[in-house]
Amino acid sequence: MEPEIIKGGIHSDDRGVLLYNNDFNASDIKRIYFIENKDTEVARAWQGHKIEQRWFSVTNGSFLIKTIKIDNWDKPSSDLTCMEFVISSKTLDILYVPKGYITSIQALENESKILAMADYRLGEIQDEFRFETNYFQ
What is the domain-level CATH number for residue 46? Predict the structure, then answer.
């Protein structure tokens, strides 16, 4: 399985605007948190999970999220393929990142905020991996 965008939608009428995502199944979610980067220069790179899955939805602004599937968690290849996704608060798109991937999360606009959702509670398992920002080419 690869990372994918679960498309949301928007409806507007004389009462206002409704953002929705009728294709997102939240039944696996056990934990949620928000991420706000200090500015648009900062990238929260590279961290990920061998077991956990993540879902990301932008509530303000927009983000560039890069994903890499890890081939060896002890010493990954530095030239692995990187997939890039841009998600915005203009629709309720949700980026699904399956287990086995790491991410880099960078705000594209000031004051951007992203909701992160995970399928394990904090401390339920030990499954966090971090790599230096410049490790991957």
Answer: 2.60.120.10
Contact 52, 122 (CB under 8 A): no
Judge whether 20 lies within some domain: no
Distance (Å) of CA 42 to CA 4, 32, 64, 75, 109: 23, 22, 11, 25, 11
Domain contains 136: no
Cα 124 to Cα 137: distance, rounded to the nearest angstrom: 32
Let me know if residue 67 belongs to a domain. yes
The Cα–Cα gap between 69 and 64 comes to 17
Q: What one-character-per-residue DSSP string does 74-131 give?
A: SS--TT--EEEEEEETTS--EEEE-TTEEEEEEESSTT-EEEEEESS-TTSS---EE-
Question: What was the pLDDT predicted at 68?
Answer: 98
pLDDT tens digits, 68-124: 999 999 999 999 999 999 999 999 999 999 999 999 999 999 999 999 999 999 999
Is residue 58 very low, low, confident or very high in pLDDT (cuts 50, 70, 90)? very high
Our count of domains for the chain comes to 1
